[in-house]
Amino acid sequence: MITRDLLLDAAMVSIRAQFGSTTLIQRRVRVGFVTASQLLLALEDVGVLGPVGAKGKRPALRLTCHRELVAADIDRAIADGRIVLTVDQHEGRNAALGGSHA
Predict the structure, then answer these.
(1) CA distance 40 to 7
(2) Which ranges carry the FtsK gamma domain (predicted)?
């Protein structure tokens, strides 16, 4: 499951690297392949990353990584329904999934 904080961490890693990929997210955020893939889809919905390009990389659409601004964009995407919050029935935590990819 993808929490808001996990999504924010993945966003910051991708912005700093100026690209997002499953390998980058898996290594830096320490998540599995499926979670990394879901994070990348959600970051595209938020507007942090572009669509998949060469070698499976997604270009960063942000040049700076102000955590507060990225957090505000994630919160706005949640409020707009682009990112859908769900509850993990097994752990009772909120989780975020890309609205158009859920």
Answers:
(1) 9
(2) 5-65
Domain of 20, CATH number, reads 1.10.10.10
Helices within the chain (DSSP H only): 4-17, 22-25, 33-46, 67-80
Following CA atoms 27, 28, 32, 35 in sequence, which dihedral angle do they give, to the nearest 10 degrees? -140
Whole-number Å distance between alpha carbons of 11 and 69: 11
3-state secondary structure of 60: strand
Residue-number span of the structural domain to which 72 is assigned: 4-98
Length of the chain: 102
Tell me the whole-structure pTM to 2 decimals. Answer: 0.79
The count of domains in the chain is 1
